[in-house]
Amino acid sequence: MTATHDVIVIGGGAAGLMCALTAGQRGRRVLLLEHANRVGKKILMSGGGRCNFTNTGASPANYLSANPHYCKSALARYTPAHFIELVERHGIAYHEKELGQLFCDISSKLIVRMLLDECAAAQVRIETGCSIGSVQHGDGGFRVKTSGGSFAAPSLVVASGGLSIPSMGATGFGYELARQFGHAVLPTRAGLVPLTLSGKHQERLQDLSGVAVPVEAHCGKQSFRNFMLFTHRGVSGPAILQISSYWQPGDPASAAGQTLRLDLLPGQDAWAWLREQQNQRPAAELKTVLSDALPRRFAQRLCEIWLPNRPMRQYNEPQLRQVAQTLGNWPLVASGTEGYRTAEVTLGGVDTDGLSSSTMMSRHVPGLYFIGEVVDVTGWLGGYNFQWAWASGHAAGMAA
Fold first, then answer.
1. What pTM, to 2 d.p., does this model score?
2. Which of 54, 200, 287, 309 has the fewest C-beta atoms under 10 angstroms from its C-beta?
3. What keywords are assigned to this protein (predicted)?
4. Could you give the CA distance from residue 203 to residue 234 in angstroms, rounded to a whole number?
5. Among candidates 184, 235, 178, 189, which has minimal Cα distance to 212?
């Protein structure tokens, strides 16, 4: 026997839960299906267990997509202020860490509890440990066959996420479903992910593992200022995770394989600072001077490989300018990324050309919706991807 609902939501992550509770609040009979043993797994692990649940500065400029305008409508109609109001209504204490990033004071479990309580109040039915066998579409809507039985509804919302962190159950199911119903899926790759080094680049830097350096990372026209962290296999840290979404491996001369450049003295005029150091400390060696501005081990490595080390007085103006140029534009030759295993998000996904920007509904199949990470909309690090989940989930929940 097939159980009938008004809306079936596939995926119990941030977007799916938001969509389910929003549709339920409209009086819709909602069924949420989650293949894992519990909902909200990525919410629980995010932000070191404290969930960076939104960013007060979220705007369309903070998202990557083949169509940069697509996210505007949903983000405008469900803003960070809307989600903050929900958090405050549930009495969840939070704080701003940096750059508009909001975190729970206590635990990300409180965000999942809040969403589940909202779903319960809206009489949303949630089935966990429910793997999907097939999805069919006919005159009466959608029929979903699962390990827990068959279900039918005129509206089907796909909130199954991307490929990042497969250890938490991530699969390409949503992309397969999109193709089944005639949607284009843009190439996917890991985003917000550590970069790997190889060969001599790795050899020169791998023993610096654990050293953090404030940098401004540049790739093409994009730049981010924050910390870089050396790892055994390459580099990580907020600045690297951010720029990784804009970088692709390949020939540096091609459009895809853009060279990464790091400003190692962000916010400073390296040339003016070096001249000042030369005047004040003429007998000090460059590696000693740099150790005041950079971690000592990294400063020494720079002077072993990239910069000539000598007392400051021995540099003439062209030589000092060359040092300043290297410090402000240090090339980082990455060979690849750590991949989906550690990536926070998946770039690419369901092509937005086939979706309504106001409702997230398919332009090919009435009643079919795609929301959250499965769609070709990817946010920066710092709460932006959760805000897209809330906004896209709310948009579909208001329409489905």
1. 0.94
2. 200
3. FAD, Flavoprotein
4. 10
5. 235
